[in-house]
Design goal:
The chain is mostly helical. The protein has a domain at 1-30 and 62-92. The protein is built from two helices and no strands. Helix 1 (2-30) runs antiparallel to helix 2 (62-87). The longest helix has 29 residues, at 2-30. It is rod-shaped.
Length: 97
């Protein structure tokens, strides 16, 4: 029984780390990129020709949300299976004599 608890705890910790990593990656990809010197830096900007078209991206691509949702669903399924297995675990028989 202790082996199941240890493996379940390790698995849940690993899944939690994976979900946290995906959430951090999704958040980091949604943050706008700052100029090389930062907002308060002294970056010399050279005048450029006015572009004919401007593309503005204001967030993460759609597939980032799909990846995070899939990771969350997988985490929920695995957690449910591990909890169900822990609830139905029977103690090992003890040899007498």
């Amino acid at each position: 029984m202790y082996t199941i608890r240890r493996s379940a705890t390790a698995t849940l910790a690993l899944l939690n780390l994976a979900v946290a990593y995906l959430a951090a990656a999704a958040t980091a990809s949604a943050i706008p990129i700052l100029p090389p010197g930062g907002i308060q830096g002294n970056v010399q900007v050279q005048p450029t020709v006015t572009p004919t078209s401007t593309v503005i991206t204001t967030g993460s691509p759609w597939w980032t949300f799909v990846v995070v949702a899939a990771a969350g669903a997988a985490f929920a399924v695995v957690t449910g299976l591990l909890i169900g297995r822990l609830r139905h675990a029977k103690p090992a028989p003890v040899a007498v004599g």
